[in-house]
């Protein structure tokens, strides 16, 4: 029997108990059962229940809104890998299975890349067509947008290249006239009508079919990749509704983009395809490797930046990024970009709409305006984060947040009414960025390129924009200033609506507008004051010295960096986006300046701020812990808390154990030797205990309410007439992560971040003292943020003190008041001190008021 039990006791990895805090007391076994803590051999009449030697379906899985155990998942994967390698030489079939397992990672990222590229191309084409539908329709081919409709026309002119007989505005179709006040009013009305229709349809689809489809999705994906479970957030319904409503939201003209939601769409694809492969469907940690690669594919198709997508996944969203995930992310981004290039949604044989090429080098003096643009980007980012979070918090705390459809309609109506008169706010935001990035040349008919020729004083569109500006340029600058104010205000109120809403494009548009204004100002300054010492050394009279489009590109990167606090990945995305490889230095200078300025007002980016607003259990690896508190200052229970809930290794019955499960909501319990000796044995999950008891009753006979439950290797000595005992050793984590009560919190926080722990146990000389969960860590960090001084005295002072559970001689006192077991069946529930709200599961409490 000893050999059998030993064989049935494989190494069990660390099995944490969720993020909630077990603070309540638990019942002990009634006194009418004799027991022996020695764990000797069972009597001949005792029936051992060893059914748990085989894996039980459901054990090791996670509930919704719970955190995964990274250590246990990695151990499970290593065990699976060893099992496959040991069998692959037994037969050809086992060898084939091992090959399939080895290649399943590449297959799943290939499918994810294919689906992401195809969906991105579909979204781009549909959004362009529906955006132009607000202004008119192509009579020759209804499925053509405005630009495609006029491609084959021979009646277009240089100045009015977007007008052709095949394209009809709504005024022409309804009133029969293209000019005049009546046609303007009709086009104005139809623009508002379509914008409201698209926005209303989008918010209704999200509210009815997939509430998780709203927002950007990147804060939630960062949280999911850190190990949090949100069932349905990456499901098929969310994918379907997000794809449809993203098109509608972009076409409605709201100040939002599709780039952030495309990362969510790609991660939905990765999650769905991972269920085709058991290697990923049955292991949450391995599944997150696929999601990291999917996020890289999402950025790849959003910006046409495969390398930038990989760096974005590494720098911004991924929590665990091994080297093989880097390779697979690169491959997924490659496949997604290839599919998007094959679809060619923009008709320019490029991956993105605003690919530009500049032919003028930048000069050292221009670093000054580039850095100033970085300062503007940092200030804008800090202002936007504070204003948007304040508005989202107000939305949660007032009645206005209870009417998401009304809010979307109201914001869409204001956006459409204000945007139509200004051509720079009426057009699609991506088209606006393209126009601002584009350098002036002979093929450009924009107002921004109306310069007077030096030869005859007439207006001309030349290769050399360093000429006196026409009134059209100044008029365009006034319109851009109004567009800048409009975009700043509306983006604050739009991000966070219950529709898919990305932040990349609006932030880039704000920066591009500011950069283009600065670029034109610098250009005219260089023309009229070319004799200044700043210009005369490198800018000759009539020479093409300043490139305003470059300033727009630098401003866009600076503003996006100020909002998201990205650095390396952002610079790579922008130069892949625009093709401006030789302008990396200005981009780096502006992005770093924007980050420094933004960090001066707060180190959180917009995604981290929304994670904290929604209360997700996310430990940011970028945040430094500089305080001097100890583990005993953070652990539970504290002096005012009820005693810690624990289980004894062989002193409980099934009835008592079920009472603990039913009367508490804790996710797990430490297991100790006995009430007298509180030496730590292990940790048992609530979910695993429940599943094991139900499985035993269903498959085994003789399991009764008074059956003894034991977590030891051998059954305790029982009377001959005792019912069959229930052995739960195989669900016991024999190696829970523990720290001592004097461990500095900076080490504990670092351990939680790097190992992805759900909780760790606190001991003193091997005796169970308390528990620290991720929730405790987050609460402690939040408390420290609200105090300028550390909440505890120095580490040296604590080293000289004795904890409250020890006497002045350093010896342990009686622990009956710290870890306590009581008779719940005789004396009633004696925990007390905790309200019903305090006993709720931690993750559900965290998600209260979430805007998901």
Characterization of the model:
The protein is an alpha/beta fold and 852 residues long. Among the domains are: 214-238 and 256-345, no CATH class; 364-403 and 475-603, Clc chloride channel (Orthogonal Bundle); 631-788, CBS-domain (Roll). It is 51% helix and 6% strand. Strands 6-8-9-12 form a four-stranded mixed β-sheet. β13 (738-740), α27 and β14 form a beta-alpha-beta unit. α18 packs antiparallel against α19. It is elongated and about 105 Å long. Residues 1-53, 452-465 and 788-852 have low confidence and may be disordered.
Short characterization:
The protein is an alpha/beta fold. It has 31 helices and 16 strands.
Give the secondary structure arrangement, pairings included.
Blueprint: H1 2-7, E1 26-27, H2 70-87, H3 92-133, E2 136-138, H4 146-149, E3 167-169, H5 170-174, H6 181-209, H7 218-225, H8 236-251, H9 259-274, H10 278-281, H11 284-303, H12 306-317, H13 323-343, H14 367-397, H15 404-419, H16 423-426, H17 429-437, E4 451-452, E5 459-460, H18 471-494, H19 504-528, H20 548-564, H21 568-578, H22 584-601, H23 606-614, H24 631-634, E6 647-648, E7 652-653, H25 654-663, E8 668-672, E9 680-685, H26 686-699, E10 708-710, E11 726-727, E12 732-733, E13 738-740, H27 745-755, E14 759-764, E15 767-773, H28 774-785, H29 795-800, E16 821-822, H30 824-827, H31 842-846
Parallel strand pairs: 1-16, 6-8, 10-11, 13-14
Antiparallel strand pairs: 2-3, 4-5, 7-10, 8-9, 9-12, 14-15
Helix pairs in contact: 3-8, 3-9, 3-11, 3-13, 6-8, 6-15, 7-23, 8-9, 9-11, 11-12, 11-13, 12-13, 12-21, 14-18, 14-19, 14-20, 14-22, 14-23, 15-18, 17-19, 18-19, 19-20, 20-21, 20-22, 21-22
